[in-house]
Amino acid sequence: MHLKREIHILVCLLGIARAYAGDTLYYSLPQCREMALEAGMSTRMQSETRLAAAYNRKAAMAAMFPRVTANAAYMWNNADVHLLSNTADLSFGTARVLPDGTATFDWSSESTLGKIETAAQGTIFADAVTGIENNAGQRVADAYKQIYDKLSPDLTHIFVAQVGVTQPIYAGGRLIQLYKIAKATENMAGYESDAKREQVIYNVDEAYWRVVSVAKKKELAEQYYHLLCQLEADVKEALNEGIATQSDLLKVTTKRGEAEVKKLQAENGLTLSNMALAQICGLPLGSVFRLDEAGIEDTRLPEDSLNTEAAVAERSEVRMLEEAQKIAKSNVRLAAAGLQPNIVASAGYIYTNPNVENGFSSQWDGRGFFSAGVVVNVPIAHADEILRYKAAKHAANAVALKTEETRQLLTLQTTQANQKLTEAQQKITLAQLTQANAAEMLRMAQESYEAGMITASELMQAQTAWLAAATDLVDAEADAKTTETQLRKYLGKL
Fold first, then answer.
1. Which residue of 26, 37, 50, 198 is 20 to 30 Å from 435, comparing CA positions?
2. Rg of the Cα trace of the chain?
């Protein structure tokens, strides 16, 4: 029997060696944490969010400084613009500018020349008067045409260019509050990034110790299975020698079948746990892990674990709410700024073509003009701004109450985790004692069975008790490590 047992142990060890050969990956807990942080999509998103918040803060700062703008415009018109009509009715006649560019003038019969012309009809002075009238009328027509042309600027091509500087002088504190809001938002992005990082580390630790515990359970299931295989072989030999019954063999065979199912379940559980850890670490889901199990038995309370008040004050959730309070207070001041005067100074240089500085000149002489001014806006009756101010004050009060409530809840959460870790340590101590007793009972039962003092059923009971005690110890150790990680997360010591 001893020779068969040694052979079974050798086969078991060879099987375990084959399981860890080939493409098996060896990782420690810090390595898994680092891979998860590098591969995590949320980590990269938070990095981008922090960069965006930083640029928004810089933009809020830049809004306090002068703003320089340049504008240019061009327009083409297919028709000329005339400020005077092409027909002018005067008291002494009518002047006309014809489409061909010529000008005419018709004297009124009530004009002096008109009356002279009427009186000179039929006399020797008629032709002379007509000549004077035509000559004088043409001079008037030409004069009107010159005025008409001067007041008909060439607006076929219009070009305007402007360079201006705007500087806010006083905005009721609006710009300063906007900067404070942007800065608080940037701080919130940083705290949120820290919270995401802590959550990733916690998820890695939980998955890591789950793989370790399931791997240990798989080893226990294999050992239990091989024990039953050995017992089955021994009962068969005893049956052949006539010192065991067929009923004893059936009981052992049934138990061995159940152990085989448990071994298969443990193997499947290890596969799924490996896949979960691989997904978190950004590795292929088919990766096979062999993890560093050192430290699973070493579970201890973190330093200053009882100083929950200081730990809660440093929690990311509280820090984010404190920044939210700052934002809420800035919103109150921002709403109050809507009731304050606003003063803005501006200056600029404008160039146009046609140039309106001297008529409507189309010469590109490069001359323009400068302008400068100050605009003051004083709100007098703005009921909506007053109501927004009151709403902002109540919103700030709500954030302050939320912050205090969160502090209380986090204090309770940290205290519970502390107590839970203490209980987990006590469970480990009890599970270790139980496992040691079960192992000793199994050894004694094995010796008693080999001496023929107990039956195979009694030996199976001892084996089952040993498996249950060893499994409970593995569960207690894994639960304690997860609880320790959770408490360190609450204390900000990850």
1. 26
2. 49
pLDDT score, position 300: 64
* pLDDT score for 89: 79
pTM of the predicted model over 0.85 = no
Parallel, antiparallel, or unpaired: how do β-strands 157-170 and 342-353 relate?
Answer: antiparallel
Give the residue among 373, 376, 372 at the shortest CA–CA distance from 342. 376
Domain boundaries, the chain: 2-39+172-341+383-491, 87-152
Distance between CA atoms of residues 154 and 362, nearest Å: 7
Sheet of 157-170: strand order equals: 67-76, 157-170, 342-353, 369-377
In the structure encoding, which two tokens stand for residue 267, read together? 């193997």
Phi, psi of 207 (to 5 degrees): -70, -35
* Cα 355-367-162 angle, rounded to 5 deg: 80
Distance CA 99, CA 228 (A): 120
- Spatial separation of the C-alpha atoms in residues 474 and 482, rounded to whole Å: 12
Q: Specify which residues 346 forms β-bridges with.
A: 166, 373
Q: Residue 431's closest CA among 471, 460, 464, 483?
A: 471
Residue 332's Cβ-count burial label (10 Å; 0-12, 13-18, 19+) is: buried
* Helix 456-491 vs helix 174-241: crossing angle, to nearest 10: 170
3-state secondary structure 411-444: HHHHHHHHHHHHHHHHHHHHHHHHHHHHHHHHHH
Residues of the chain with pLDDT below 50 are 1-22
**124-126-127 Cα angle (round to 5):** 95
CATH number 1.20.1600.10 is the correct assignment for the domain at 2-39+172-341+383-491: yes
Torsion of CA 404, 405, 411, 415, to 10 degrees: 160
- The one-character DSSP state at 441 is H
Cβ proximity of 358 and 187 under 8 Å: no
Q: What span, in angstroms and rounded, lies between the C-alpha atoms of 450 and 235?
A: 11
Q: Give the pLDDT confidence of 93-152 residue by residue, as tens digits.
A: 888 888 887 888 887 766 766 667 666 665 666 677 677 777 877 888 888 888 887 777
Q: Residue 4 has what pLDDT?
A: 40
